[in-house]
Write a structure and sequence with these properties.
This protein is of the alpha/beta class and about 400 residues long. It has two domains: about 1-195 and about 370-395, 3-Layer(aba) Sandwich (Rossmann fold), CATH 3.40.50.2000; about 210-370, 3-Layer(aba) Sandwich (Rossmann fold), CATH 3.40.50. The chain contains 15 helices and 14 strands. An eight-stranded mixed beta sheet has the order 3-4-2-1-5-6-7-8, with helices on both faces. Helix 5 (about 140-150) packs across helix 6 and helix 8 (about 225-235) packs across helix 13. The longest helix has 21 residues, at about 375-395. It is globular.
Length: about 400
């Protein structure tokens, strides 16, 4: 089976954090014998093509000079970049054209096109019209939120989904959403993200009562301001608690100023964006993951933390609710409520046996759900075969050696 991935974010070099989920997924597929090609945006210093983890990676340039190619990468990706720099809208036509051209060159050798993010599905549809290659679209979360905000975006998203041979979602919430938009149930499959099940937290000697961890982009949508406000309240009664922010973003300077203003410099660290291999190390050195987001799909960081044996304190959102069980694997929060966040974190901080039980329960749940990367790759391999067989049977695809 030959699969071509279309993605707006993929590692630009070894150890890059951009698109690491897609990278790990492709690596797992490749290990199963699937021939994987990846098409992604270029960036300053990134090679136009290379072999990564057994996959052929092709990057397209979409603007001159290359140093001005700033639409795709950075904290929050394309939506965040457009919000910060509206002038980047000018680059979108060039971006789409270059994406299609590169796709035309690569997809002719593929059996299946897999578009990550709804709007990559538009490129997949164009390539289907040219080459006749069936395509699937994966809903990741931010694309659904973006579609819900504007009528034109919503209309385009629904049109793309109706053209797709099959749709996958990272949560039941998004599967339900797609079905409510008129997509037949049998064309929408829920496939949860994969995680590394080989990493597990080991208890360490430490003088701190509790080590809290946030991993993600430092943007308003992640609710990071409420976490700092909660930390201010916690520090009034518990001094031996430490919070580490792993990630970067446009809120970082504001958050650091707030920390400094309230004298929390010794209690809060900002370590910036870390390589994908470093994130599990931070998790294994922590006692609890905190994610007070305003909106999420099925955040991989939650699954990774649970796989490491950490309890999770996160917003009470549909995707998160699928794995974080109140009082069992963590606590669910009211969004934008720093008082509630502080209350739940104090329970975690003051009750070590509780957080250890929650962490162990979360680890067991992830194992029971079979969320390893290889298991995820096997589920997708079955999806690809289904799409390929259907395409051949109705004469929409080109018969090839699978």
């Amino acid at each position: 089976m030959r699969v071509c991935m279309l993605t707006t974010s993929f590692p630009r070099f070894q150890g890059d954090y951009a698109g690491v989920f897609i990278f790990r997924f492709c690596r797992a597929l490749s290990s199963l014998g699937v021939s994987v090609s990846v098409i992604s945006p270029g960036d300053k210093g990134a090679l136009p093509s290379e072999k990564m983890a057994g996959c052929n990676v092709y990057r397209f340039s979409y603007f001159i000079p290359k140093s001005w190619q700033v639409l795709a990468y950075g904290s929050g990706g394309i939506p965040s970049n457009l919000k910060k720099n509206p002038w980047l809208l000018f680059q979108i036509p060039f971006f789409l054209f270059a994406f299609i051209v590169k796709g035309y060159q690569v997809v002719k050798n593929a059996d299946i096109v897999h578009a990550h993010w709804i709007y990559s599905g538009f490129i997949a549809w164009m390539l289907k019209e040219i080459h006749g290659t069936p395509f699937i679209v994966s809903l990741l979360g931010s694309d659904v939120r973006f579609a819900e905000k504007r009528l034109i975006s919503r209309m385009l998203a629904l049109w793309i989904l109706k053209q797709a041979t099959l749709i996958t979602t990272v949560s039941q919430e998004f599967r339900t959403w797609a079905i409510e938009q008129g997509i037949p149930e049998d064309r929408v499959h829920r496939v949860l993200n994969g995680v590394d099940l080989s990493i597990r937290k080991a208890e360490e000697n430490t003088s701190l009562k509790c080590r809290l961890l946030f991993v993600g982009n430092l943007v308003p949508e992640k609710g990071v301001r409420y976490l700092i406000e909660a930390m201010i309240k916690i520090f009034n009664s518990e001094k031996d608690v430490h919070l580490t922010f792993v990630g970067d973003g446009r809120e970082r300077k504001k958050l650091q100023a707030l920390v400094q203003k309230h004298g929390l410099d010794d209690a809060v660290d900002f370590v910036g964006a870390q390589s994908p291999d470093q994130v599990p190390i931070w998790m294994c050195q922590s006692d609890c993951l905190v994610l007070p987001s305003l909106a999420e799909g099925m955040p991989n960081v939650v699954l990774e933390a649970m796989a490491c044996g950490l309890p999770v304190v996160a917003s009470d959102l549909p995707g998160i609710r699928e794995v974080v069980k109140e009082g069992e694997t963590g606590f669910l929060l009211r969004t934008q409520d720093s008082n509630h966040l502080a209350e739940k974190l104090l329970e975690i901080v003051r009750n070590k046996p509780l957080r250890m039980r929650m962490g162990a329960k979360g680890r067991s749940l992830i194992t029971e759900m079979e969320l390893g990367w290889d298991q995820m790759a096997i589920r997708y391999q079955e999806v690809y075969q289904k799409v390929y067989d259907e395409s051949v049977s109705v004469g929409r695809g080109r018969k090839k050696d699978a």
